[in-house]
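ESCALATION

Customer reports they have been waiting on this structure for their group meeting. Please prioritize. Original submission:
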Amino acid sequence: MALVENTLFGVKDKIKIAIERLKAFEPKDGYYLAFSGGKDSVVIKELADMASVRYDAHYSLTTVDPPELVKFIKSQHPDVIIDKPEETMWELIVRKRMPPTRIVRYCCDLLKERHGIGRVVVTGVRWAESTRRKTARGLVNIGSPKTGAILNNDNIESRRMVESCYQKQKTLLNPIIDWSDDEVWEFIEKYNVEYCKLYDEGFSRLGCIGCPMAGSEGMEKDFERWPMYKRFYIRAFQKMIEKRKADGLKTDWETGEECMRWWINEKTPEDAPMYDLLEDL
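Update from on-call: job pushed to the front of the queue and completed.
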């Protein structure tokens, strides 16, 4: 079994180690368990139960969540607290006056990262899910990617098991940071842990519908599966363009459809008509 390894220093049981990590850092007020409904989240929640540590689990609703994922959380994890945002993604796009991108990820900060302040937050972050290992720097600085910044749910190689985020006033515990994808699925099968069946449809990630971090292919796949959300984005982009014009700001897009085509096919920051206007944010 991959979760139990023979090393030069003896047998390494990753399940036992993860449980010991959870026990070792348990705060007096219990953990804030950041629950996304994905495979890693169901594993850390199961591990927290096995460790008999106190926690309250929270799901940050973004308003662009896969409906099947929300239904799964409500049916299989009724104890998870669903935190609703102060504004929807559609309202946020208009207020920010530009689409969220891989470079400007304001949606993550405002819709996901505002919870768990002052708490010890348990996450399912893992090195194996990294897509930016070569360029990642720093420990945990929430802010501009140019300074090596990363968000709570970023999976990059420089992440550590225990982290402190002074700006967000959080301590992050990543108990399965050294687990592989195969080990996560092995645990799910071994302990008969329920998981969202979108994985069985070929989805490898269950984040926000249309997330730019999934790349063009992932975004197209999302919009084929949930075409209604593509229409919602186009409508929000149209209102965003009208807002920019009303505020006297430059825009090279005339319609929401034009913006959508660029958004899905974005290649580099230089391709964006409005990257010279980031100060407008």
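Sent to customer with the following note: The longest strand covers residues 55-60.
Escalation resolved.
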